[in-house]
Amino acid sequence: MVKTEESNPSAEAMVLSLRAMGYDLSTAIADLVDNSITAHANLIRIDFSWNDGEPWILISDDGDGMSESELKKAMKPGSQSPNETRKSDDLGRFGLGLKTASWSQCKEMTVLTLKGGNYSNRCWNLDYVVSNDKWELLLDLPPLTRDLMLKRLISSDTGTAVLWQNLDRVIGDFDGSDSESMKNNFQEKMVDTVKSHLEMVFHRYLTGRQKKEIFVGEYECEPWDPFLTSHESTEEITTEKYQDDKIVITPYILPHSSKMTELEKDEAQGPNGWALQQGFYVYRQKRMIICGGYLDLGLKPMDHHRLCRIKVDITNDLDEEWRVDVKKATASPPLAYRGELMRIAVSTREKSTKRYRARTQVRPGTISRPTNEPPWLRKKVGTKFLYKINRKHPGIEYLREDADISRTKLNAILHLVEKTVPHRSITVDNNDLNDSTVDLPDNKVEPPQELIDSAICFVNDEISRGKSKQNAVDYVCQIIFPISHPKLMTELEKKFLR
């Protein structure tokens, strides 16, 4: 017979450890929204109040609610094994989310739930747990707390409300000074950061015939679609499916800059900006887990890959295989699919590069200077061809004026360049080495900072002549300095279009 003895963890030590799971406010609230969606809620509200320096956050829904026995189980840490078979629409996994997400932000978490018109409640007060070193729930609610929660319940028959108080991780050590600034910071965090995160993570639940409604305060969440599927210029590439459709991968190429309005560009870059939002988007039952990046495949985000976005759908029975964490904020692909994911990523990035660097026609009526002046002129002399730099090109003329150099001196410099172009070496190299001078890495042919500075000045000049910022940037990139280098485009977009 095996001899054993019980070794229960210290309540104080364990609860303080569980507070350090790595949630931020947005991911913590998203975890509670998961519970509401799993409970078939159609309306979810995240209300909040500064409450004279004692702020609270209340997440309520019109879902199925819980009986008293169900609530007691839900309040228990580790209430469900991750190995248990789940319904296909269950967004949970470890039976920890309600507790760890709440504890990561507050010291007092109260749940009041309605089922069949009867309500039950329980409260975790971490100060009480720590002081007594016992896993004991509080059963009695202060009347004001009970009334607040009952009023916020959306349905009078079923639903659940979770109240966070003593928000020490949200507002930090608040001593009562500079209260107005702290209040504004709290409200901005809720309305801007949290709302944007929910709009991204749950965007597929916020559309369609069975869409959910989510409110942060008085503001309704609007879906942020990273793939711009409703835009006519978005390209959806062939979908690939694996493991009996348990893994579904669909790459997208976003529209070229010239095909989007200023508002569309601003929305398309997402909460984290163009660089971080490119790459893979992993969804577990339509709920976003990964929002951009290249997993751990060793690929780096590049500006000319910014139009590359790849949707990966997995079912919730692949959690362990994909190493989905407790917060549902990270995942890692299994070894068996890394090669396929790399292949799809490389192919989609190549398509993104081609579209990003494509020169599109400038909008009619937006150009006030000649557009038929190529940088180089090709002239046939007998049986040979002569190549000369076009002195009339607006970019050449602008650089001459910017450098305050006479036309005579400029002609001498350009003549030297023309006469020393190594035509034969270029021809031999390209024949022997398969176009060795074409498509060099961007870092090998970066435009000098002086040219970028001149391009910025040129855009400013065009704006002063009445062009919009977008048209001015288009004109400079396509007509004045048509080198199609991502660094030049990035600097101009950063200066004028963000």
Q: If you had to describe this structure to a student in words, what would you say it looks like?
A:
Helices cover 38% and strands 17% of the residues. The chain has helices spanning 11-18, 25-38, 68-74, 97-103, 126-132, 143-152, 168-171, 179-201, 262-268, 274-277, 335-357, 394-403, 407-420, 423-433, 449-464, 469-480, 486-496; strands spanning 43-49, 56-61, 108-115, 118-125, 159-165, 213-216, 219-220, 235-236, 240-242, 247-253, 279-284, 287-291, 308-314, 376-381, 384-389. The chain folds into three domains: 11-220, Heat Shock Protein 90, CATH 3.30.565; 235-357, Ribosomal Protein S5, domain 2, CATH 3.30.230; 376-496, no CATH class. Strands 4-3-5-2-1-6-7 form a seven-stranded mixed sheet, sandwiched between helices. Strands 8, 9, 10, 11, 12 and 13 form a six-stranded mixed sheet that branches. Strand 1 and strand 2 (56-61) form a beta hairpin. It contains 17 helices and 15 strands. With 498 residues, the protein is α+β, with helices and mostly antiparallel strands. Residues 360-371 have low confidence and may be disordered.
Secondary-structure map:
Layout: H1 11-18, H2 25-38, E1 43-49, E2 56-61, H3 68-74, H4 97-103, E3 108-115, E4 118-125, H5 126-132, H6 143-152, E5 159-165, H7 168-171, H8 179-201, E6 213-216, E7 219-220, E8 235-236, E9 240-242, E10 247-253, H9 262-268, H10 274-277, E11 279-284, E12 287-291, E13 308-314, H11 335-357, E14 376-381, E15 384-389, H12 394-403, H13 407-420, H14 423-433, H15 449-464, H16 469-480, H17 486-496
Parallel strand pairs: 1-6, 11-13
Antiparallel strand pairs: 1-2, 2-5, 3-4, 3-5, 6-7, 8-10, 9-10, 10-13, 11-12, 14-15
Helix pairs in contact: 1-5, 2-4, 2-8, 15-16, 15-17, 16-17
